[in-house]
C-alpha cells in the first residue's frame, strides 16, 4: 500500500486493515502448529472468516480477501501433508 493511500484512509478502514493483518498473523501461527495440534485448522478458519468479515464491513476489502485466503492455509497444509505422506 502506498503512503499516499494510507494517508487518505479513514479510521474505520485502518481498523479493518489492522484486524485483517491480525487474522493473517494468527493463521500463520496456526499453520506452524497444525502438525502438532490438528484442531488449529478449525480455529484458524473460524477466526479468519470472522476477522475477514469485520475487515470487509470496515471497508478494508483487499485485506479482507487476504484474510479469507490465509484462513484456508492450515487446511491446505493438512491436505498436502495427507496426500504426500
Q: What is the count of DSSP helices, taking H or I runs of 4+ residues?
A: 5
Rounded mean pLDDT score: 85
Task: Report on the biggest sheet.
Answer: none
- The helix fraction, in percent, is over 70%
SS strand fraction: under 5%
Strand-pairing-aware structural class: mainly alpha
Low-confidence region ranges: none
End-to-end Cα distance, whole Å, is 39 Å
Number of domains: 1
Please provide the count of β strands. 0
Report Rg: 14 Å
The H-and-E topology, N to C, reads as HHHHH
Taken from the alpha-carbon principal axes, the silhouette is elongated
Describe the structure in your own words.
Helix 3 packs antiparallel against helix 5. 29% of the residues are buried. It contains five helices and no strands. The termini are far apart. It has one domain. It is mainly alpha-helical and 85 residues long.
Features:
85 residues; mainly alpha; elongated
Describe this structure in a few short sentences:
By secondary structure, the chain is mainly alpha-helical. The chain is built from 5 helices and no strands.
Amino acid at each position: 500500500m502506498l503512503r499516499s493511500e494510507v494517508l487518505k484512509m479513514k479510521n474505520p478502514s485502518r481498523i479493518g486493515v489492522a484486524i485483517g493483518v491480525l487474522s493473517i498473523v494468527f493463521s500463520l501461527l496456526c499453520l506452524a502448529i497444525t502438525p502438532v495440534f490438528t484442531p488449529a485448522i478449525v480455529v484458524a478458519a473460524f477466526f479468519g472468516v470472522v476477522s475477514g468479515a469485520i475487515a470487509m464491513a470496515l471497508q478494508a476489502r483487499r485485506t479482507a480477501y487476504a484474510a479469507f485466503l490465509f484462513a484456508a492455509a492450515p487446511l491446505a497444509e493438512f491436505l498436502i501433508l495427507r496426500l504426500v505422506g
